[in-house]
Amino acid sequence: MSEEQNVVPSTSKQSSINKRLIMFTICVSTALVTSNNGSLNLAIPILAREFQTSIATASWIITSFMVSMTLCLLHAGKISDLFGRKTTYITGLFIFIVSSCLGGFSSNIEGMIISRIFQGIGGAVIMANSIPTVTDITSKERRGANLGIIAMSLAIGSACGPIIGGVVLSFNWNWLFWFNVPICFFILIISLVAFPKTNTLITKTKFDIKGTVYLLIFLFSLLFLLTYVLPNSWDWYLIGGLISLSVLALFLFIFTENKIKNPIIRLELFKDKSYTIANLATFCNNLGQTVAMFTMIIFFQNFRGLSPFEAALLILPIPVLLVMSGPISGRLADNIGSKLLSNAGLCIMAVGLLMLTFIQENTFNIYILIALGIIGLGSGIFQAPNTKTIMTITSSENRGVVAATRSILNALGRLVAVSTTSGLLGSLIPNNNSPFPSELRYIFLGTVVICLIPVVLSWLLKAEN
């Protein structure tokens, strides 16, 4: 048993200046964590050459961060309640600073992956503290507006990541890590002064250790199969063993989650078919968006000979259209319905991905930019209505768990996209001098099918009802 402390800050004593400083630190830190992976996506070809390894191996620089962050997000909120928002948030910043320093000094791929694992842990603690802290310090009248500012910070971080990466890579890849250090240190100093002391209420709870371990085994066995084994070897014993291990771990995870009082994910919520389809759509949306961005970054650098900064500029249509269309879609959802807009967004994204199936080595950039813009537009139209659907299907007492589940599925969508795509690209592009692979279109075609699965299921459910 562990003692969980629910933080109850004395907001009446918190000065207006301190609240603004806290909002500032949270906005900057969440944007920084979000932009981190986007900036490093650009560096994968460069780091593969630097460490003399394959793109599939180098992609674990991205994958390791997302795996550790996904798993730590599950418990970071509870740790925040246990030790207080201020202590936990500052600890997360400290871990992020140290791991960023070590990442910049890495001399081999193994050291960099280890530093990225710890960076993911620090990032998870920072992200898990953001919304609870804002909720704690904000009155009910201002809470919605401030949470909207946090959401905008996340979108800006996602949009700016590739640009930051492109600019920094024109100097030295090490600064992709060291860039975080002075900013986080500055935020750390402000947080020490601005964050309020907290009162605590002690209750007893139990961490879901078994569920975490089973989920970790499931993810790593599946990702190892997709990233390393299938692209490089057809050892049926190894393939069968990894599939069996992942299925067993998933079964044990589901069994454990159904038995304990404080599960990582409330599986009983998935008995609602609309809720299940909406969450599946969340996963598919993030997978499709990530496949497009990750693949085209490799395409622009390997087959067009563009610099990382130029590649970053060419994938900007996705985050820019996403940020522009999101707020409009949210307002429309109140008038014409969330499910219709969610399905429309996925269909629009599928059109953009389908356009990418026709690209060749000499395809005009304007065609690719239009396709990427359509993908960003579709994703932006999808996200707000999908969130509304998920949050309104369930009762108010389950909304915290529901929001956490959606965050996990977002992360898993990106995780599966990067690991699978990097494995396929590693087999299609074994080295930097490889010719353009015509098979590239199958990656996008498969993603089109995946994005349309929730649309078909939603239509079938409507017909059934």
Automatic annotation (TrEMBL):
Ranges in a coiled coil: none
Major facilitator superfamily (MFS) profile domain boundaries: 22-465
Tree of life domain: Bacteria
Membrane topology designation: Multi-pass membrane protein
One of the record's GO molecular function terms: transmembrane transporter activity
Gene Ontology CC, one term: plasma membrane
Compartments it resides in: Cell membrane
UniProt keyword annotations, A-Z: Cell membrane, Membrane, Transmembrane, Transmembrane helix, Transport
PANTHER family, per the entry: BLR6921 PROTEIN, MAJOR FACILITATOR SUPERFAMILY MULTIDRUG TRANSPORTER MFSC
Name this protein carries in UniProt: MFS transporter
